[in-house]
Amino acid sequence: MPQNFFIRFWKNRKLEFDIIAEFVILMLATSLSIMWYSFSNNSKSFMGFSNTLAHEVTRGVITNTMFYLEDAKVSTNLGAYLMSKPEEITIDNELLRLYMIGLLQSYTYLKSVYVGGEKGNFFEVRQLDPGATYRTHPTERLPGGIKFAIRYIDRSQETARETWLYTDENGEIREREEVEGVRYDHKTRPWYIKARQERSFIWTDIYLFAVEKLPGLTAAQPLYTGIGNSESKGQFFGVIGADLRVEDLSKFLIRSNLGEKGVAFIVDTEDGELISHPDPSQTFTRDENGVTAMTQLHELSDRRLTTAFQRRLNLNKTLFDFSYNGQDLFSLFIPFPDELGKKWEVGIVAPKDVFLKNINRTQREIILMAIAIFTISIFLIILLARNLSRPIVMLAKEADKIKHFDLSSSTSVESNVAEIKLLSESISSMRKSLQAFAKFAPKEIVKKLTKRGSDVKIGGRERNLTIFFSDIESFTSISEKYSPEKLMPHLSEYFEELTQIIQKTNGTIDKYIGDAIMAFWGAPFADRQHALNACIAALHCQRRLVALNRKWRLEKKPELRTRIGLHSGETIVGNVGSSDRMNYTALGDSVNLAARLEGANKLYDTNILISHAVYYIVQKHVVARPIDIVAVKGRRESIRIYELIGMKSGDPELLPSKDKIKYADMFTKAFTHYLEQRWDDAITMLEEIKKAFGSDVSVDMYIQRCEDFKKKGPGDDWDGVERLKKK
Q1: Is beta strand 459-472 parallel, antiparallel or unpaired with respect to 344-351?
Q2: Which end of the chain is more exposed for a tag (fewer CB within 10 A), N or C?
């Protein structure tokens, strides 16, 4: 009795038994694996901490720098309210002088504050470095206690005069000198030119300051007459600005907590210019005449920074790891806020082993232990799993055949495991069900539905699709002149080429109607770019037909010209038919409209017509011209239709020529004139099109319409809609 019980249990044992048996044998290996995983997870956590630290460093640099820049902006904005007319830009304006001195005392990193007038007067207060000299005697030092220099250029007289006043920290004037031969003209400086052009607050690009010959940037605010300093309340009469040296930004980078080998820097991603570096001398190049230019990042001797920035651009990632000269590094780039108006980013580069040195050593030891235990355990796993895996492998192969819609196999898998028996029976039942389902839908649709696991039943739902209709021009006359034995392979080759293009762009072939093709995008699987994919497919179809017709011409076969109509809209899509035969198809007004657009190509002698619904979605990506506003037969509502010409970017084969783009632009202008009832302007533009590009059916048609409307008038109720009487 006990023996019979065990025999029955063994022949019908559950998969759970085998899993438990293997789990016990692998327990030791699993324990060590958990240890390895735990340590690995700790490493990731530690790297996460490193990344967090890096983010804190970069954000700290950005925050400090933005405070630094914001102070300069606020200072110029407030200073603008001190002046309401050009005459106040003078050395006698004590309020302005005291304000500027107080500003430089409060914000020591501001090197100078100045005002330039449209009439040529210039007033500046500048902080002086220790050991500053007179302007007229550059070898003679100023007396001790001199803190600020006040510079005033007066161009109100016939001869310009430049005066320098030197004050102590309280603003008391201690020295004065006059400079002959005024050479400085603020109206030629970048800060004045840009502020005058923008007529709003601006930051200049980095440039060399006129006096110090050091790189920096300027915050500048335009000045207007009247109260409120607004362009809407007065006239422009000058600019107030404040200078900041680039080297002062370095102090925020020096403070970054990245260890001895880590580096933080600021770069302009637009042109690769190094804005700031912990070593200020790295940011610009010098020669015997002084500073010559800002350093480009690729010119740095520290190639780690150059490599990191290049990977930042190539990978389009802000956080990544990389290796340089055998050293594992990680890098992070964070952009400055948009309000700065510049493409600046803070970047950091630091060695990974600075943080992971001890962890890496322990990790290697654990991995070696895990490998040893795994090697021993694998033999036991093979012995115990072989008997279990054989039927599962066979069932997996059968399931894979079904996945690829190969339903010819009838292999059955024998096993004493209850779950495997059930799985084998289920696969056999599934194969029979799919063989029956193949009667109701095309093979490709069934493949897709099989992969997705969709339930197959009669019914549909409304979805936004793009519908495609194509038809061969004059196919009836071609079929009358060409024997059926030759026509059918010829037509099949045509269908094969266009079908592949449609399917490669995620389109679904609905049906072949004689020589016509109906297809749609957006079902059975959702496609966010269904309209764009349909346009790409239509252009590829026409492009492919050019090559095919060239081939058929050599083979002395009839050339086929096809017309295509596209429309996007809410459409009912699903399974229709009977219990014996189903068809996965799309129904509704959108389908009818796409078919009408295909036929409308005859009227305008076009190849691809798209509705406004399609154009509205894809207008940023395609080149198209408006053709007409029509109400197709059987439809009261009018729509604007367009001829699809090409793509604006992407596949070079689909890019239109410059002439086609120019043609589309000119026709669009003519069409606008036509809708605005400017008949003469429309005719003039259309005649220019004929002269430049030759005769065109649509161009001739609109010239005739305009001539007719000039004579008879369009009528009070004319809305530009052409009501098509043919399908």
Answers
A1: unpaired
A2: N
What count of residues does the chain have?
727
End-to-end CA distance of the chain: 85
pLDDT tens track for 239-279: 999 988 877 777 666 655 565 677 888 888 888 888 888 78
Q: Write down the pTM of the prediction.
A: 0.46
**CA separation for the pair 110, 367 (Å, rounded):** 57
Q: Cβ(481)–Cβ(556) under 8 Å?
A: no
Alpha carbons 197 and 255: distance in angstroms, whole number: 38
Q: By C-alpha distance, which of 88, 86, 110, 113 is closest to 99?
A: 113
Q: Which two tokens stand for residue 516?
A: 């016509």
| Residue (of 650, 656, 575) closest to 608 by Cα position | 656
In the structure encoding, which two tokens stand for residue 548, read together?
A: 């095919």
Angle subtended at Cα 43 by Cα 38 and Cα 44, rounded to the nearest 5 degrees: 95
Rg (CA), the chain: 39
Token couple for 571: 């459409």
- In whole angstroms, give the CA distance from residue 644 to residue 200: 42
For 67-92, give the DSSP string. HHHHHHHHHHHHHHTT--SGGG-STT
Cβ atoms of 329 and 304 within 8 Å: the answer is yes
Domains and CATH numbers, the chain: 85-243 (3.30.450.20), 258-351 (3.30.450.20), 452-654 (3.30.70.1230), 657-727 (no CATH)
pLDDT tens by residue, 649-693? 989 999 999 999 999 999 999 999 999 999 999 999 999 999 999
42: left (phi over 0), alpha (psi -120 to 50) or beta: alpha
